[in-house]
4-diphosphocytidyl-2-C-methyl-D-erythritol kinase (Streptomyces bohaiensis), 326 residues
Amino acid sequence: TPGGPAGGPEVGAAPRTASATAPAKVNVQLAVGPVRPDGYHDLANVFLAVELHDRVTVTETAAEAAADSGGARVSCTGPGADLVPADATNLAWRAVELLAAHHGRRPDVAVHIDKDIPVAGGMAGGSADAAAALLACDALWGTATPRDELLSIAAELGSDVPFSVVGGAALGRGRGEVLTELPVSGPFHWVFALADGGLSTPKVYAECDRLRGDAAVPAPEPSPELLTALRDGDTTGLAGALANDLQDAALSLRPSLADTLAAGLAAGAPAALVSGSGPSCAFLAPDAASADRIAAALAESGTCRAARVTTGPAPGARVVSAPVRG
Ligand code: C5P
């Protein structure tokens, strides 16, 4: 059996470690309903995972070291790493603590996040890190947490975390955490225009409420045309159906995003939208070559910090290395 007598690291042996990856997402439809008594909004949230991934590595630490440090052990590398909190508010760390508590054990691990998903971009980077941390710890500890339990822990961490576990395409109802997986083909080609600085998700929702004022807000429903286009891998159909009810609020808080959207459309993108609560903007492209051209034009335009090309759908969180269990 691996590990020392108490299941801790063996003296003199390399510390046990496990890694998992999780994808970014774009909301191809984000229908926002009325604000609920708990402050959240009812959603019809159609998620598509895209092939940008963060990698989370968890490494066993000695119990004494954990007790001494008195808190989170989080490190982060990659673009924007300095913007990721390294304390107990880090969503990946909260995932470690919640899974440990679920199994009645101590969170005696160090967490390392290798970022590739733009930080604070409306692309669910923090949710991806939490999802990957859940899977990595489950593999490290050999706890074999049933899928439904993992998903309910994920939902406790944040509205978008269950989707990062599941990947592919899914409809999120409730506050986004009640998932139905959707049939999807592809690939769909995407360009993301990244902005400087983030937008606070709660502030964007609050601005959406403010802009709506007293107007009646209908119950959010997924668009049948959009679901058909996703299923059929129909880029033109999807381009015609993309919708984000948070876009006006994101534009109100960050008016310059209108220039970014216009630059991508002028470069030939058949459709553009703010990704989630922003400030990243997403552009659909008919094929890989067009995506490269649109990305180059966006980078040239001076309306964004950088442009990234990717495709969706992408798989959900996956363990990519785990200790060999005896
Ligand atoms: O659930 P999560 O922590 O990701 O949500 C972040 C914030 O976004 C919430 O505190 C809330 O202000 C807002 N939100 C919302 N309605 C949702 C999801 C999120 O108002 N369905």
Q: What stands out?
A: Residues 156 and 168 are 21 Å apart (CA to CA).
